[in-house]
Design goal:
This protein has about 625 residues and is α+β, with helices and mostly antiparallel strands. It has 15 helices and 18 strands. The protein folds into three domains: about 210 residues, no CATH class; about 180 residues, no CATH class; about 220 residues, no CATH class. Strands 2, 3, 4, 7 and 8 form a five-stranded antiparallel beta sheet that branches. A four-stranded mixed beta sheet has the order 6-14-11-12. The protein has a three-stranded antiparallel beta sheet with strand order 9-10-13, covered by helices on one side.
């Protein structure tokens, strides 16, 4: 108990210190605005540039020979900006509130042949500049190629600033005049004079209302979203009807009323799901890997929730006998769910780094869930090396994630994509911070999981009663032979079918999410995404329960891993869709962008497999519980 108490105190101290440093960073941008007086300086920050078609290929603003400010003032980075590689530096443009400016010269440059070549390459690849004002992104292309094939550089920027009373509502950045563009001729030195102008336009809509109008308008695709949801609900009703019909067949026809107490110790001569009652709870192969997969998947799914009484609880496996309250309390009630944060407006509309911060904080602080679930299941399966199981649980998802990140970061460094790669010392600091939070919480969850299962659970073995789901059952000494099944009732077709239906529900939202994340838009349909997510969970649970019943009716008792793979197959469908999206919908080019897309989407698909595999396993577990609850062995 002393070790557990010390771990709790250590974790609370780390979380308290970390929470205090980041509490103000996760907030809604709709509340983040500045008021000005006439003549006040309006700060602008430059950050990145890169090809418009390849959003992952980014370079620092001053990697091109653009105008630099008289002095460099780097804005203090938030944790999310560190994760995103955002370095905001003051722009070389001096804007004063309500002060008109025309043809202000920023700097003059004699571009060498090498610099002209770099600018021509940037124009050919459609490079754009990224500027920020109060977290509002401003974009401007470096130049263009006209119909005559000339490479024209936008050397004069025009800022059109829209104001409401003492607030800046928005800023438009456009090239000033086409006649001011500079023709960059290959292998020829060129003199360029960079400049800017500022125009002020009064509007009659305040910033908060303008932001809400801009991002709350129903897009032209919103009707498609809702139609897809209604269609999914109709399919769900059909599935419910099929499941009810199957349930009636199993429990009314094959298990007539009054036969519960007439069961004998032998099931010879029985057919169907009852004849495998001595095999369904046989210990699964690779029990440690299964327990670790379920622990990691549950962590990714549930994240964390504080119950109304202040205790920490696991929602998914509560009904299965594994979800008990942790014996400590917290002061506040809160639900740290990404979708809930999105619905509440935390990432709305341009909370730069907010999503990255939320993902890091939530994933590290929910390690207790994976440790508790994994150790509980591992002890249920009769495992003894629970520390090794915890190590496997920790490395199962975070290991591939870290390896993939390091590999892609090395590729970005090799391509000199300075804004896409994190420095080595930053990676080490983030890894150390993650370890200090994640490992103690994981160990803490594992200790409570081991303690809660220590007294009541023993290994599953022949003629040894095991208290599983609070119902004593036994397993036979020899596993029952599985009869030959038609091809459509075997493992692979069932796994493919179980993943296809849930994927059909999430297909549309997946398309819009990928288009936004790997593009230049802002995803705002969190309510629709949340409803879709709930429907996907419902489809996975219902389809897997039906297939588990059908599997038992076919006298196939190997359900442990198959139930996990059924839900996990959704991740494979997601990755196949990513391949389709790349070849059919995208316009990307270059190894850097392609490696980033397929690398990170592989990790996301893997996480989806773990997450939905845990849901399907839980559905099968409940199905087994209700099917074999009435059966008793003497």
């Amino acid at each position: 108990m002393e070790l557990e108490f010390l771990l709790i105190i250590f974790c609370l101290l780390i979380l308290g210190c970390y929470g205090n440093t980041n509490r103000t960073q996760i907030r809604s941008d709709s509340l983040n605005y500045t008021t000005y007086k006439a003549g006040d300086s309006v700060p602008l920050y430059v950050t990145k540039l890169g090809p418009f078609q390849n959003p992952s290929e980014k370079y620092h603003y001053f990697d091109l020979p653009l105008c630099k400010p008289d002095y460099f003032n780097e804005k203090k980075q938030t944790f999310g900006e560190i994760l995103n590689g955002d370095h905001l530096i003051n722009a070389p443009y001096e804007i004063e509130f309500l002060v008109e400016k025309k043809s202000i010269v920023t700097c003059s440059k004699n571009l060498s042949k090498e610099q002209v070549f770099r600018f021509r390459t940037a124009i050919e690849r459609n490079y754009y500049l990224q500027i920020y004002h109060d977290d509002m992104p401003l974009f401007l292309f470096i130049g263009r190629v006209d119909k005559k094939g000339r490479y024209l550089l936008h050397n004069h920027i025009h800022f059109q600033v829209f104001v409401y009373e003492n607030q800046i509502v928005k800023i438009k950045v456009v090239p000033h005049h086409y006649e001011d563009e500079v023709d960059l001729i290959e292998d020829k030195e060129t003199y360029v004079e960079f400049g800017y102008s500022v125009e002020w336009v009064k509007v009659y809509i305040p910033l908060v209302k303008s932001t809400k109008i801009k991002y709350s308008k129903s897009s032209k695709y919103m009707d498609i979203h809702w139609f897809s949801l209604l269609n999914s609900c109709a399919i769900a009703l059909v599935l419910i009807g099929l499941f009810v019909k199957l349930y009636i067949r199993v429990f009314k026809k094959e298990f007539p009323e009054g036969s519960h107490d007439e069961e004998s110790g032998s099931n010879q001569g029985e057919r169907g799901w009852k004849c495998i009652q001595d095999d369904v709870f046989r210990i699964p192969s690779h029990k440690s890997l299964l327990a670790a997969s379920l622990g990691s998947g549950t962590q990714l799914l549930t994240l964390r929730r504080w119950n109304r009484h202040g205790g920490f609880e696991i929602r998914i496996f509560e009904e299965l006998g594994f979800g008990k309250h942790f014996p400590w309390e917290e002061e506040d009630e809160s639900t740290m769910l990404i979708l809930v944060l999105g619905i509440s407006g935390v990432f709305y509309p341009h909370n730069r780094g907010g999503l990255s911060t939320a993902l890091f904080v939530i994933y590290t602080t929910t390690s207790t869930i994976s440790g508790y679930i994994s150790t509980s299941l591992y002890c249920h399966f009769g495992g003894t090396n629970w520390l090794g199981n915890l190590l496997l649980t920790e490395c199962l998802f975070s290991g591939p994630l870290f390896i993939t990140f390091c590999l892609l970061n090395s590729i970005a460094t090799a391509y000199k994509a300075t804004a896409s790669a994190l420095p080595f010392n930053t990676i080490m600091k983030i890894s150390l911070l993650w370890s200090l939070i994640s490992f103690p919480l994981l160990l803490l969850g594992g200790m409570f999981g081991k303690r809660n299962n220590k007294a009541e659970l023993q290994p599953i073995c022949p003629s040894n009663k095991v208290k599983l789901l609070a119902h004593p059952l036994t397993t036979s000494s020899v596993a029952r032979e599985i009869p030959t099944l038609p091809w459509f009732r075997r493992a692979l077709p069932q796994i493919a079918l179980a993943g296809a239906l849930p994927f059909s529900v999430m297909y549309l939202e997946l398309f819009f999410a990928i288009s936004t994340v790997w593009g230049h838009g802002t995803y705002i349909s969190y309510k629709v995404l949340f409803i879709t997510f709930v429907l996907v969970l419902f489809f996975i649970a219902l389809v897997n329960a039906c297939l588990t019943c059908r599997q038992f009716l076919a006298e196939d008792h190997k359900w442990w891993w198959r139930s996990f793979f059924r839900g996990g197959s959704v991740g494979l469908y997601v990755y196949c869709f990513c391949i389709y999206y790349y070849y059919v919908k995208s316009h990307w080019s270059g190894f850097l962008q392609v490696s980033f897309f397929f690398g990170y989407m592989a990790i996301i698909s893997y996480g989806i497999s773990l997450m939905f595999g845990s849901v399907s396993f839980a559905a099968s577990f409940l199905c087994v519980h209700y099917m074999y609850h009435p059966i008793k062995h003497n």
